[in-house]
């Protein structure tokens, strides 16, 4: 006996019959069953109409819920992130000004055709900016 014999992939489907008494089934599942069954002359057509009405009410409720969710999203605006402004201010501060100067000189040499990389200068400058900005950013958090 293998593991596949123990697990039936269709075991989670519950059969729904149109003639069965109403159980806890969704309106959509009932509508699918009733719509897929051909209507015979001695069956009541009212059952189909009732199911369609329930389905329409469900769709209306879903649309109202979506509209309310959209209104809530519009009302709740995310506050502006203060981190970029704080980092820019720290980059212009006296503590990081000399490192920015070295980075700008290296960038000018690279533009003139130098084959060097400014990675070291950039890392030093970003480290200085982070050291300055992190305490200020965390102070602004709630």
Automatic annotation (TrEMBL):
Biological process, per Gene Ontology: mitochondrial electron transport, ubiquinol to cytochrome c
Keywords for the protein's UniProt record, in alphabetical order: Electron transport, Membrane, Mitochondrion, Mitochondrion inner membrane, Respiratory chain, Transport
UniProt cross-references to InterPro entries, sorted A to Z: Cyt_b-c1_6 (IPR003422), Ubol_cytC_Rdtase_hinge_dom (IPR023184), Ubol_cytC_Rdtase_hinge_dom_sf (IPR036811)
Keyword Electron transport: yes
Its membrane topology: Peripheral membrane protein
Top-level taxon in the UniProt lineage: Eukaryota
Region (Disordered): 55-87
GO cellular component: mitochondrial inner membrane
UniProt subcellular location: Mitochondrion inner membrane
Residues in Ubiquinol-cytochrome C reductase hinge domain copies: 81-142
Sequence ranges of Acidic residues compositional bias: 55-81
Protein name: Ubiquinol--cytochrome-c reductase subunit 6
Gene behind the chain: QCR6
């Amino acid at each position: 006996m293998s593991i596949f014999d123990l697990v039936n992939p269709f075991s989670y489907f519950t059969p729904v019959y149109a003639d069965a008494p109403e159980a806890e089934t969704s309106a959509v599942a009932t509508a699918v069953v009733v719509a897929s069954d051909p209507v015979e002359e001695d069956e009541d057509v009212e059952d189909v109409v009732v199911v369609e009405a329930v389905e329409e009410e469900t769709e209306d409720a879903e649309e109202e819920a979506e509209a309310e969710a959209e209104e809530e999203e519009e009302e709740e605006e995310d506050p502006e992130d203060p981190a970029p402004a704080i980092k820019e201010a720290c980059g212009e501060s006296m503590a990081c000004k000399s490192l920015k100067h070295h980075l700008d000189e290296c960038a000018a040499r690279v533009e003139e055709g130098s084959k060097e990389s400014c990675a070291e200068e950039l890392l030093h400058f970003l480290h200085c900016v982070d050291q300055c900005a992190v305490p200020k950013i965390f102070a602004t958090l709630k």
